[in-house]
Amino acid sequence: MKKVLYVDMDETVANFKERMIELFPFTEHIFNEEETYENGVIIEDCMFKSPRMFRDLEPIEGAVESVLRLSEFYDIYFLSTPFWEVPESFMDKRHWLEEHFGDMCYKRLILSHRKDLSMGSYLIDDRLANGSEKFTGEHIHFDTKEFPNWEVVEAYLMAKLKPTTVEGFNDKWSDYLEDRHYGLAFDDEEVIKYLDSEFEKEILVNPDFSYSQIKLKFGMSRVYAYSDKTNVWEEEIDKMLKGNNVI
Ligand SMILES: [Mg+2]
Q1: Burial 114-127 (b: 16+ CB within 10 A, else e)
Q2: Which of 107, 72, 98, 92 is nearest to 10 (CA)?
Q3: From residue 117, how far is each of 123, 131, 132, 244 by CA, in Å?
Q4: For 116, which of 25, 61, 110, 131 could close a Cys bridge (C-beta 3.0–4.6 Å)?
Q5: What is the 94 CA–ligand 1 centroid distance (Å)?
Q6: If you ran DSSP here, which 8-state letter would residue 121 be given?
Q7: Cα torsion angle, 229, 172, 75, 212, sign
């Protein structure tokens, strides 16, 4: 089963700051300062003057591409805090997501002022407010030294998915494992890493991909999968297993 991954919107996938400064240049200094109540009032006041600004935000660099790629491996929901006093922001966030993420975001928007109440494995968020700090999974603090951009975030989350055991492998690929089959049946870390990397490439080019069994038969590997690469995989696996003295 895919792990649940929440993605914040403003300043994580949507460039709120850029649009705000474009509309109200005098707000620029606010984004370089600590969050204060007074600055919050100024920002809110600007939004009253331009309540539809959420419809026009540019995506953060790399965000759309990374989220779409990650959605192959994670169960992604957008978890965003709208501006309560600006009800237009509720509606425009939904429209904005559809425009940039298409079908991928269908019924995957959660608007909340208590992000800590949402259960899941990861939350990517640029702020600690509205429950992010108390999120019970792992908070990936976007736009910090550790996670400065989407390239780093995507690499981090993909690395989390690298299985090192048979169980981890079949768990990661469970959406592609045919019903009532056991999947990969022999334990060799080199083979697991190899097949994992091959499967990641395969799903990008083969929409019909699935597998049922990967096992040893008569001292050779057998890969049962809907792919025209099964022979290549078997040859490579056999080389690895010979090198590791398994066969
Ligand atoms: Mg944010």
Answers
A1: ebbebebbbbbbbb
A2: 92
A3: 12, 8, 10, 48
A4: 131
A5: 15
A6: S
A7: positive
For residue 200, the CA-to-ligand 1 centroid distance in Å is: 30
Cβ-based neighbours of 237, under 8 Å, separated by 6 or more: 191, 194, 195, 214, 221, 223
Confidence bin at 61 (pLDDT 50/70/90): very high
User: Which residue type does 134 have?
Assistant: K
Indicate if 187 belongs to the active site: no
What pTM does this model have? 0.76
208 is annotated as an active-site residue: no
Fold of the CATH domain 3-160: Rossmann fold (3.40.50)
Q: Which amino acid is at 224?
A: Y
Query: Which range has the worst mean pLDDT, 45-54, 63-72, 103-112?
Result: 45-54
**In the prediction, which pLDDT does 35 show?**
82
Find tokens 């989220």 and name the residue: 67
Q: Where are the domains of the chain?
A: 3-160, 166-243
Q: How far is the CA of 44 from the centre of ligand 1 (A)?
A: 15
